[in-house]
Amino acid sequence: MNSPTIALGLAEHGLPMLPLRADKRPFGNCRACENLTCGGRPNMTTPGPCVCLWPCHGWAAATTDPTVLASPQWTAAWRRARSIGYHPGGAGVTVVDLDNPAAVNWARTNLPPTTTVPTTRGEHWIYRGAMRSVNGVRAGVDIKSTMSYARWLGPGTGTLAGLPDDVRALAEKKSASVRLAPRAVTVPAPTGGGQCPHRSPAYLERGVAMAEQRIIEAASAIHATVYRTFLAVLSAHGRCGCLTEAHIGRLFTAAQAKGESPRHCTTAWSNAATALGM
What is the C-alpha to C-alpha distance for residues 124 and 118, in angstroms, rounded to an integer? Predict the structure, then answer.
């Protein structure tokens, strides 16, 4: 498979493309961006290359720019790629990823017909229209659209249908369950040792409350907002030992209410601490 040629052809039709490894995941970040020490791309709500020009930062690296797709950095990644990915939301579509025969049968009964693409274990049902991506909306069913990627497995068969309300409802139902049952914090509070900048307990409380509010009010770029908020909290309050697991738990709860998984919260917190040398 000539991955660069295929990717360039698809990009001409408006599909933001990126190379995928043998395990079907995007390539890891370059050395300058490892552990997101670069802070991530400035705008994580749209596809496009990282400023370092490597195919960094997962789905957000997807691009339609032919000069980037054919650049030396990307050419090196294409040589190692085993499959091609694309950003569905950036192409204005939503992929309902059906991971097993039972999920496919459910879709045939409950969703309107549309373009379908066979996968190794099930099918991709593709609809016109973008929405928020949510995994595990029901057994064997993921929704991949904005801030996500899917494998390119061919154009599929059938006529592309508009995004049905039933698919949007699945995402809302899943989000509601996340908000009702956030998991406990899984990282220890910093031990401190640095100079304490807190003039009073209210200073720390106000800082944590403002961080919670920043996450809750985020309308887009949730991953980036959570990371940058964690980075700001640790920078201001993480070196003196006043920040407790209860404070961190509040931040994690706010992030989970916006759809972040406990794993993403833990990773973002660890990356922020690493970036600050903590």
Answer: 6
